[in-house]
Amino acid sequence: MPSIIKTTAFLSIIFILLFFLFIFSSPAIFTNPQQVLRSFSSIEVRFAIKLSLLTALIATIISISIATPAAYAISRYSFKGKTFVEGFLDIPMALPPVALGVMMLIFFARNPLGSFINNNIMPVIFNTPGIVIAQFAVVSALAVRLLKETFDGVPPRYEKIARTLGYTELEAFLHVTFPMAIKGFLATCLFVFARAMGEFGATLMLAGATRLKTETLPIAIYLSLAKGDLEGVAALSYVLLLISIITQIIIRKLLFKGAST
Amino acid sequence: MIIIDKLVVRRGLFSLKNISFTVGDAEILVVMGPNGSGKTTLLEAIAGLLMIDSGRILINGEDVTRKPPEKRRVGYVPSDAALFPGMTVRKNLWLAYRKTRGLSTNELNKIIKLLNIEALLDRRVEELSSGEKQRVALARALASNPSVLLLDEPLSMLDPPTRDRFKKELREILAELFQDLGLSVIYTTHDLAEATVIGDKIAVINNGFVEQISNPRELLDNPRSRFIADFLGYNVIDGVLTRIDDKELVIDAGEFVLRAEKQNKNDFNTGEKVLIIIKPSDIVVLKPTNTYNEGTFPPQLNIINGTIRRIFLEKESIRLEVNAGLSTIKVEAPYSTLNDFVTKPGNHVQLYVNPANVKIITMHKDEEAHHHKN
């Protein structure tokens, strides 16, 4: 007699797979591979792809640069209020991006510091920097969390050994810890990048949805849907799907190809 | 040469208390103690990997107490080797060598040859056996040209046959190293047999406190506290000093009376409580036929009457546990004892111990050794 647990488990897997297969395949009603390829030549789609790649890249670089030392500190040192910091960083991840976006909009519009930045340093509201800030707000906490887990995976004793071999704290990090964490680090970068590419709610609130100005790929889908262009929506969905498939393949290669090491 | 001077390290509830010792060039100090006695904490403090509360550490005359680990020239081999994972042996050695470059490539090659790891250089560390890992870890520590080498229970992860072989190899390897490099070695273990093979000096550590430092012979012959005697597996019996003669002390242990040869530095008082320490192998099991009438020793004194509780057979000896009143006496007798007479649990036996082999510690000395702990 087959085990109930095994049967249930496999049926659940099949259900989830089918669910997503149906969903991923349904936009095909409105489009075909030629049309998806053709959409790449449209000015609007090209703009959206370029803007998405550029803003997501900048947001990823900024958040990883800040998250790496922060995550290392949380992973390696014990300090007063560490539990609070960790808990606090989970809040932006649990908060709906739309709410995060609205709060940022109010900050840059009404807060003296925020409006000073918006008016004198760089225009954030309904502008391109707003996209980067919205993406940063959504992915930075995630980056800290993922990098902390990566550094947790490298036992601190290797750094200690490196210290006895003549390496300073920074050198030990660069020559020993970081090379050991490189796969997790790259996977985090890609994951954060993919998440930034797909950011919609916060971007819509802070940067708005202006055609050929703050039009990222998700915003482009939203605009196409608003004007009833179902073919465009379908093609754009597949562009995003393609990007996430590529990212997933790379992440999996990074994480599992050399998993034994 | 390394000098540890009144080192105190507090870590939560545990602390290292007032530890002082010196290890000369080409000398091996074995720090021996049970798990949790502070051996690893001591090594990490010396390596600079944890904060010390007070005391000083001098390496080759230089005070390194406040120096970071990278400025101390202390090579550290933890018990699990801690080779950098995902790398080859060569990369591990290179990482150690490139930073200091204190050795010539010739010297480095010599170390590789000495530790017999030439064939392993291009292997990934995950593919190595425990014994190979230890050898590579030792080579890695040496590649950074340290003046002090810390080996934390290097044999503890090895299976017994490998351990026995590597124990002897290690002594030879260190001897060989000493010819070229003036290293001081601090080596920890919880194994007495390992300590006596490896160590020039042995420090016995218990609960963060060094109870005795001496050469192996002195440690085995004259353990200076109840803890050490227990750790060595010796008999430790409470008694009262009843008489002091020119040459002898007489101690009443309740069920039996023992004479002990007087040692030069004894300062005892009659009526004082003492600890009697006797090695199991110094106790003779008397044949029932010639029970104390051969004239070699007077009757009654240094004879212990008892009942065999348990018998353990070993390769070359037998171990007996004999109940004598409230005490249980541990005896190690030649295997041939089995042929001499029937030895089985419940049998009555007479034991004899030569007065020269009865060691006495006064209770206040034992307490003194423990007093520093708190």
Describe the protein in words.
The complex is a heterodimer of chains A (261) and B (374). Chain A is mainly α and 261 residues long. Chain A has one domain (33-256): MetI-like (MetI-like fold, Orthogonal Bundle). Chain A is built from 12 helices and no strands. In chain A, helix 3 (43-76) runs antiparallel to helix 9. The longest helix of chain A has 34 residues, at 43-76. Chain B is globular, with a radius of gyration of 24 Å. A 6-stranded mixed sheet of chain B has the order 6-7-8-3-9-10, with helices on both faces. In chain B, strands 13-12-11-14-20 form a 5-stranded antiparallel sheet. Chain B has a 5-stranded antiparallel sheet with strand order 15-19-16-17-18, with no helix packed on it. In chain B, strand 9 and strand 10 (209-214) form a beta hairpin. Chain A binds chain B through residues 157-158, 160-169, 171, 175-176, 179-180, 258, 260-261, and chain B through 44, 47-49, 68-70, 72, 74-76, 78, 82, 84-86, 95-96, 99-100, 124, 126, 140-141, 143-144, 146.
